[in-house]
Structure formats: C-alpha cells, structure tokens
Amino acid sequence: MQTTATASTTSVLRVMNERAVFAETFRLGAVSRPELAQHTGLSKPTVAGALANLERAGLLRQVGMRAGAAGRSAVLYEVRPEAGWVFAVDVGRSYVRVALADLVGRIVARKDEPSRSMRAGDLVAQLTRLAEELATTAGITREDITLAVFGTPGIHDKATGALHLAPNLPGWNRRGSVERLAGIAGATYVVENDIDLAAVGEATYGLGRGVRHFVYVSIGTGTGMGIIIDGKLYRGFRGAAGEIGYLPVGEDDPLADEPAARRRGMFESVASADGVVAMARRLGLTSVSTAKDVFDAARSGDEIARRAVAREVDHVSHALAGITAVLDPELVVLGGGVGSQPGDLLTAPVAERLRDLVALRPPRIEVSTLGTDAVLLGALAVGLADARNLVLDTAAAAG
User: Fold this and answer.
1) Is the predicted pLDDT of residue 257 greater than 70, yes or no?
2) How far apart are CA 200 and CA 159, in angstroms?
3) What 3-state class would DSSP assign to 97?
4) Angle of helix 194-205 relative to helix 374-398, nearest 10 degrees?
5) What does the alpha-carbon distance between residue 326 and residue 330 come to, in Å, rounded to a whole number?
6) What is the mean pLDDT of residues 341-360?
C-alpha cells in the first residue's frame, strides 16, 4: 500500500513539474534549461527530466543553442506548434467565420462566408466542409484537430443538448441538436455564447487587456453582453448572464407591448438594428432599410434620423446605467453593427447621458478595436488555453 501511494505521489509531482516547465516555455519562448530552472524554482535535474518527457511526447522541441559564460552553450527549447490544433468558429445569422490555429496561436488558415444557418443540417454541412478545407490547407486532417470552439448566439443547455434564446438559429432549440457539432472537427468540442467569447477576445487581444472589470456590449442584429469580473468571464448560474436583450426599457415605450418584444426582449426590440430602423420609420423616415442608413442620414443632418438616433442613445444609456449600478465596470466596450458606430453619434452622447444617470463617475465607453473578429478571437483564446491542457493530459496519460 505504501509503495502504491509513493508511486502515485511521484506521478503527480512529475505531471505538475512538466506542466510548470511547459507553461514557462510557452510564456518565455525559446528558453534554456538553466533559465527554466530559475523561473520555475525547480532543480536543474528536475527540469531536465521534464524537458526530456515533453520532448518525447512531441510537445517541445530543440531550436538551437545560446552562447553562455566561459564559452558554454545552452540548448534552447520551445513549444512545438504542431503539437495541437484549434478550430475556432463564429456562427452568426448572416456569416460564419472560421479559423485554424496551431498550439502557439498562429492562425494558419481562415475563411469567412455567408451563413447557411436557416437549416441546422445545412449549417453542420457547411461547417464540416470549412473544417476540411482549413485542415487541408494546414496539411492535417479534421481528426487531427485537438479542440473545436463554436461561438453561437443563445445559451447551451448541457443537460438537454439544446440552444436556448437563439431565435436566429432555427432548429437548434431541439433536444440533442448541439450534438451535431461533434463530428465537424476532432473528437472534442466546446460551445460558448458568442458575446461571452467576444468579451474574452477583448480581454486577450483588445481594449480589455489589463482591465480587471469590464463589459462587452454588442448591439447589432441582436443584443448581448459579456462580463469580465476580476479578470475572469462571468457566466451566471445558468450561463445566461449578460442576456441584456430582456432588460425592460419602460412601459411607455410604443414597442414594449408588441409580440416581438416579448419574444426577443424589450431592449433588443428597440435598441437592435431592426429597432433603430423601426423607430426611424415610425417617426416618418420611411426610406431607410438598415440601421446604417439611419446613422448616415443623421450624420448628414436629417432631423428625423437625428431624433431616431437620440432615442437609441436614450435606450443604450439607460441600459448602461443599470449595468453600471449592478456591476460597477471600469470599462464598457461597444461592439456590433450599431454599437460600433463612430463616437460622434453614439459613444460620446451615451457617455454624456450616463453622467446624468449614475451617481458616481461612469465607466469609460469605447468602441471595440476588434470589429467583427471579436467572437472568433475569443474562440481562439478559449480554445488555445484548453487545447494546451488537453495535450498535456494526453502526454501524462501516455507517460
């Protein structure tokens, strides 16, 4: 019994040491054994053993020598990029965006194309074809992909395998529908809310880097919010945190009692792109067909368009006032087709209005610098972190 316990403890320590060495190698890039010993606090023999095991497992590789003191040279190691692959997917109503990255995060293939989301079977076939095309470009097969991350609207119910609150993806609210994604790429996949992923993208690559408390608010075809608290994504009890489309906007709003408001949520019905167009038309500007048309007309001086935009500013300001009162974020990042409008029409007026609505200093409000790539980059960030753990788990099981 004592021998078994000792062996188990030794195995756990070995795995922990290998993870520490792998993590520091990834963080530092090309690094020598003495440098790894210094940064991990492990002994040089322990580091040497971990390096040998990780190299044998195909996770690290030697990449040359570095001259040291007294003419000595040290072997340099780095993470082997081909040791793992991440397939990232942004499923939108109009477009799907896909990318394939190696284990160090280098995007080796990418493609965007109009979505076939109106039928679940067509969307699965489309994503399968795209996965095949990207894998071929990288010189691998779909089965070689370590992890696929799918960013979709709505909430993934893991108990039933259905997507809730995703009206733009017909058929995905049925039990077991999400399981169709299992055969698209590799054996392991993750489904995340698209706006949550956009928040992770901002935290990793965008305006949220180094900001511990911020929210990403997307206003476009739909509305949603991703919440970062103390540097981590907050999902809520059922994974529905940030579904701000269902925020009340006031009982006196003329659209509040319409069926669409009850189905999509009051805030989304009046503040989304369709809501902006509907308001402009109600006010008498019948020539517009998109939210961009309304904002362009407002920028050109059309008085009716300016009134419609003013209503949008009011809706967004009141929503952000409520969010500020509850979450107290340092930063609000706006995204989506409406949220990304230039500051003169939306961001600056909203910031000014917020100063009147909140008691304390309001958060900074900025437009996302990632644009339409926010969800895809968030999927890559989540996928890369998980994929590195997966390849380490595989190596530990084999070792």
Assistant:
1) no
2) 24
3) strand
4) 80
5) 12
6) 90
Tokens 């001259």: give the residue. Answer: 67
Is the pLDDT assigned to residue 180 strictly greater than 80? Answer: yes
Average pLDDT for residues 52-56, to the nearest whole number? 94
Exposure of 155 in the CB half-sphere (CA atoms within 13 A): 17
> Do the beta carbons of residue 22 and residue 79 sit within 8 Å?
yes
Q: Do the strands 223-229 and 232-234 form a parallel or antiparallel pair, or are they unpaired?
A: antiparallel
Asked if 379 and 197 touch (Cβ cutoff 8 Å), the reply is yes
Instruction: Identify the helix (H) or strand (E) that includes residue 132.
Output: helix 120-138
Q: Which two tokens stand for residue 197?
A: 């992923």
With cut-offs at 50, 70 and 90, classify the pLDDT of residue 264.
low
Amino acid in the structure at residue 313: V
Give the separation between CA 234 and CA 227, rounded to whole angstroms: 5
What is the rounded CA–CA span in Å between residue 310 and residue 302? 12
Contact predicate 245/268, CB 8 Å = yes
Cβ burial, residue 210 (10 Å; 0-12/13-18/19+): exposed
Compute the mean pLDDT over every residue in the chain, rounded to the nearest whole number.
90
- Looking up tokens 């210094």, which residue turns up? 38
- Dihedrals phi, psi of 353, to nearest 5 degrees: -65, -35
For residues 146 and 387, the answer to whether their CB atoms sit within 8 Å is yes
User: What is the DSSP track for 40-58?
Assistant: H---HHHHHHHHHHHHHTT
What is d(CA 127, CA 189) in angstroms, rounded to the nearest whole number?
A: 13
Q: For residue range 383-392, list pLDDT tens digits in order.
A: 999 999 999 9
CA–CA separation, 244 and 100 (whole Å): 31
**Taking the CA atoms of the chain, what radius of gyration do you get in angstroms?**
25
This model's pTM is above 0.70:
yes
